[in-house]
Design a protein that fits this description.
alpha/beta; eight-stranded parallel barrel; globular; magnesium; 11 helices; TIM Barrel; 256 residues; magnesium ion binding; pantothenate biosynthesis
């Protein structure tokens, strides 16, 4: 049985931590699902896997293409898809159309969008009213990289209060969960305690209801990982060595 929004909310109430990772293709998705990951995010972070410098160039069509491949590899995990930059900010109608396409064409169970300012709260409310499950995203919002950079958010009292109020407003608008990115651990704990929906942290300390990282970071595939990520193995080194060994054997006519 596939995991549902109701289960994720119930797990928060039970104190069960939620395990989340990103995926960008069938092979990775299948491995994550078989390993027992609870939530798989087709994030716009796949921009890095596709060779972009930021998340901004990813299009809705690219996102849908990769999400369809991920869906084919997922049987149990909750499948969540990021709405890419400028696929939902222009108007509520644009957001409904983009999110509707994602659910219809990929089989995903929900979408995630960035920001908690009043216009985005209204957008979330309308999406939920249309039957589209939405996860909010506050703190560092990478689609605003040219305004915010990639530095930690919520370090001042004013910024902390703003992020907390945004999270509360998004829950009231109907969001089923909240991603907290690169904020102080004490702020993440405060948000987690205030909300009745689960919080998923990335660089937000240990007090969230779950954690997510970019899979290429934990596997050591990325050229450079953020400071809050943990590298669990170095596949970049392993793959390079395997390819070099293969190339050497072919050139020396030792293979096949």
């Amino acid at each position: 049985m596939a995991i549902t929004t109701q289960q994720l909310i119930q797990w928060k109430q039970q104190g069960r931590s939620i395990v989340a990772l990103t995926a960008w293709d069938y092979a990775i998705a299948q491995l994550l699902d078989a390993a027992g990951v609870d939530l798989i995010l087709v994030g716009d972070s796949m921009a890095v896997v596709l060779g972009y410098q930021t998340t901004l160039p990813i299009t809705l069509d690219e996102t849908i293409y990769h999400a369809k491949a991920v869906r084919r590899g997922v049987k149990r995990a909750f499948l969540l898809v990021d709405l890419p930059f400028l696929s939902y900010q222009e108007s509520i109608q644009q957001a409904i159309h983009s999110a509707g396409r994602v659910l219809k064409e990929t089989g995903a169970q929900g979408v995630k969008l960035e920001g908690g300012y009043p216009e985005m709260v209204e957008t979330v409310a309308r999406l939920v009213k249309a039957g589209i499950p939405v996860m909010g995203h506050v703190g560092l919002t990478p689609q605003s990289v040219h305004q915010l950079g990639l530095r930690q958010q919520g370090k001042t009292q004013e910024a902390s209060e703003r992020i907390l109020s945004e999270a509360i407003a998004l829950e009231q608008a109907g969001a089923f969960g909240m991603l907290l990115e690169h904020i102080p651990a004490d702020l993440a704990m405060q948000i987690t305690q205030k909300l009745t929906i689960p919080t998923i942290g990335i660089g937000a300390g240990p007090h969230c209801d779950g954690q997510v990282l970019v899979t290429s970071d934990i596997l050591g595939l990325a050229e450079k990982s953020p400071p809050f990520a943990k590298v669990y193995t170095n596949l970049r080194e392993t793959i390079t060595k395997a390819v070099q060994d293969y190339a050497l054997e072919v050139r020396e006519r030792k293979f096949p």
